[in-house]
Write a structure and sequence with these properties.
mainly alpha, 7 helices, 0% strand
């Protein structure tokens, strides 16, 4: 019975990532703030990593990163690599040092989103040599950062309920 619950939980996580990707990419559904869209897949991948073992968290980080790569027309694997490492790291930290609760999830969301947005700015904007990197940070990447943070409480509560509902039966 435990394998069946695990498969159902993993299918639910996959469906959640897919639905959030479709919501994120639907034109006009989420209003753009300063031309920035939220990275709705990022909070889902990180909150999945809070509850799942390291390799599973890394696999969902890769899946979420590939969705972000498809959506933002980035070099294939850029977000997948970043999210795989972050989700593996988050899962390891949670298993060893932290308890999973709302405050821990929000703090984790603050720094993981900062790492992802900063790496997007650094590798896809600053290093290629575009002009006015400070302007881009203030008017594009900071709004994207704060806009993404709005989705962490919702995805945490959704994934916590999903994990507890299917973990209790194991």
């Amino acid at each position: 019975m435990t394998d069946f619950n695990r498969v159902i939980r993993y299918l639910a996580y996959t469906l959640e990532l897919l639905v959030l990707f479709m919501l994120q990419e639907t034109p006009g559904l989420m209003p753009a703030i300063f031309g920035s869209r939220p990275l709705m897949v990022l909070p889902a991948a990180v909150t999945i990593a809070l509850f799942e073992p390291e390799l599973t968290a890394m696999a969902f980080g890769v899946l979420g990163g590939l969705f972000l790569d498809f959506g933002f027309s980035c070099p294939m694997g850029f977000h997948a690599l970043i999210l795989a490492v972050l989700c593996f790291f988050v899962s390891t930290i949670v298993k060893v040092y932290l308890q999973v609760n709302f405050v821990t999830a929000m703090i984790t969301g603050l720094w993981t989103t900062a790492v992802v947005v900063a790496s997007i700015w650094l590798f896809l904007y600053y290093f290629p040599g575009y002009s006015m990197p400070g302007y881009a940070v203030l008017h594009r990447y900071l709004p994207e950062y704060f806009y993404t943070l709005l989705f962490f409480p919702l995805t945490f509560l959704l994934n916590k309920a999903l994990y507890q509902a299917l973990k209790q039966q194991e």
